[in-house]
Design goal:
This protein has 3 helices and 5 strands. It is of the alpha+beta class. A hairpin with a 5-residue loop joins strand 4 and strand 5. It is elongated. InterPro entries: FAS1-like_DH_region, HadA-like, HotDog_dom_sf. It holds the Pfam family FAS1_DH_region. This is FAS1-like dehydratase domain-containing protein.
Length: 158
């Protein structure tokens, strides 16, 4: 892969933010739990959630990390409607290198989520481009809900 060093450095610091147009709502929590196969009653039963110290049902943890659930973004050519950096690396394919999630507090149906993504680093190593970004998720009160550190790897197509 032959990307100019200045082009790689220019990626660092890019930032985008998405704010949901409305609160998550109970249906989003219920549907996401169903989709991921998690029948924990904390996600669907307010009485159960209150009995365990929560003020209401809570969201499955990674729901807010999937911006396609609430950001209202248009679908891309592959049908995905969530966050993407849209980095075009000629002759390479994108491989997801992993995510490291930190959850700070429960998310409730009345929360309006803002996801702020920032590219923290971009470097070429061993013929691959590694892009690390950090997403912070906050609610309408500015309270930190979660952080997602994601690594994307662009691998040369032989």
């Amino acid at each position: 892969m032959n990307l100019p060093a200045e082009e790689i450095r220019a990626l660092v610091g890019r930032e985008v933010a998405y704010t949901a147009p409305e609160p998550l709502g109970r249906a989003a929590l219920r549907y996401f739990a169903l989709a991921v196969g998690d029948d924990n009653p904390l996600y669907t039963d307010a009485g159960h959630a209150r009995a365990h110290g929560y003020r209401d049902v809570v969201a499955p943890p990674t729901l807010i990390c999937e911006t396609n659930q609430y950001a209202g973004l248009p679908m891309d050519a592959d049908g995905y409607a969530g966050h993407s950096w849209h980095i075009d690396v000629p002759g390479a394919r994108l491989v997801r290198g992993g995510n490291d999630y930190t959850f700070h507090q429960p998310v409730h149906p009345d929360d309006v989520i803002t996801a702020t993504w920032r590219i923290e680093s971009a470097e070429e190593k061993a013929g691959k481009l590694f892009v690390t970004s950090r997403a912070t998720y906050t609610n309408q009160r500015g309270e930190l809900l979660a952080v997602n550190e994601e690594t994307l790897i662009y691998v040369e197509i032989p």
